[in-house]
Amino acid sequence: MTVFFRRSRMFLLLALTLLLGPLVGSCQYLRYVKALDPTMPGTKPVNHAPFDALLKKHVNGQGMVNYRAFLADSTQLSGYLTTVSNTLPNEQWSKDDQLAYWLNAYNAFTIQRVLRGYPVKSIRQLGGDKTLVNTVWDQRFIRLGNDKDRYCLNDLEQRLIRRKFEGEYRVHFALVCAAISCPKLRNEAYVGSRLNQQLEDQARDFINDPTKNKLTPANAPQVSEIFDFYPGDFKKGDNTLAKTLNKYTTGNKVAAEAKPTFMPYNWDLNEQK
């Protein structure tokens, strides 16, 4: 998952980058202004069984990944991602099949990027430190269809998933950026036929994980920085952060007027020890 500032900060960053572009590079941030929706007519929903088998083999029940063992199966992962790249969705697919495709693509390409740089303590070490410019999430290594351009993880999350599926805040509990504070990597692939239940499971698991959210006391909960990275995504319609937390908590409810603080994000690799 990529780190984005609050929207006001993001707009300020874009303005500063526009003014100082020659000093920081090629203004790569401009690509994020435009939505992305690659498509391919005539395709059928992808069979995610190969990725499902790899997740079951290398991801435990706590969402931790055995990257060292995964290296031995990197060819199988590449084969699955070749199928993904060659089989873009179209509007004949159900919305759930389309979203399952992009969630799996993001998570699988993230694993591939880690494996290419492994061993590493944190995925952030694989890129630079300029948000929207040269972080690991801005590296263009993803092929989509026959397009000669290459895309990055930020393209998939920011330009595609968050825009095409606007209002589906549960994607933030399913996209996994290979860090300990990210949601747990599910040890099965997402599939359209069960996507709603899978996303419900992810939301419930994430919000009730005390290493990511502490919902007591009710008027001063401590919550994941994910809610600070994307505050607007949890305020669509009449929704609020408190309503989201209370919908999925299995413990105490938070107060509607609660002012949460945000827990520090642990960027260490989500690796089995």
Automatic annotation (TrEMBL):
<dbReference type="Pfam" id="PF04784">
    <property type="entry name" value="DUF547"/>
</dbReference>
<dbReference type="InterPro" id="IPR006869">
    <property type="entry name" value="DUF547"/>
</dbReference>
<protein>
    <recommendedName>
        <fullName>DUF547 domain-containing protein</fullName>
    </recommendedName>
</protein>
<feature type="domain" description="DUF547">
    <location>
        <begin position="91"/>
        <end position="207"/>
    </location>
</feature>
